[in-house]
Amino acid sequence: MIVHKIFAQATDLTIPGGVSIPNPVGFKFNNIGEIMIGVGNSGAIPFIFAFAGIGLLLMLLSAGFNFLTSAGDPKKLEAGKQRLTNALIGFLIIFVAYWAVQMAGVIFDIKEIQETFPIH
Fold first, then answer.
1. Nearest CA-CA partner of 36 in 105, 92, 89
2. pLDDT digits 0-9 by tens, 19-66
3. What is the pLDDT, as a whole number, of residue 47?
4. Distance (Å, rounded) from C-alpha 89 to C-alpha 106?
5. Where does residue 100 fall: left (phi above 0), alpha (psi -120 to 50 degrees), or beta otherwise?
6. DSSP label at 97?
7. Which residue ranges make up each domain of the chain?
8. Which stretches of 1-120 are assigned E, i.e. beta strand?
């Protein structure tokens, strides 16, 4: 059985018998930080932000459509308001969480966080 220890912050392969192969050929990333931030900004974080932005746009369009087609119906108008509120709150949660992690890394001098989420 081959074990990839990506989430244990290492990509060594351990094969039966306890033999470890450090940084096997074909692995692009060496730890979880490189997966998140990537090599040359090709990691998961830019995709997460892009997905969040597209989700926000779709939710805003949907809320606007509910407003426009409500025709005075208070239920549809309230549904549009709720969708707009939920979209903005969700988007704010994503960015506040990202910046909170960065600030915690700087304030508490946690090297792993500073390496994973470098402040540009």
1. 105
2. 666 655 566 666 666 677 666 656 777 788 889 899 999 999 999 999
3. 83
4. 25
5. alpha
6. H
7. 1-30, 40-116
8. 3-4, 13-15, 19-21
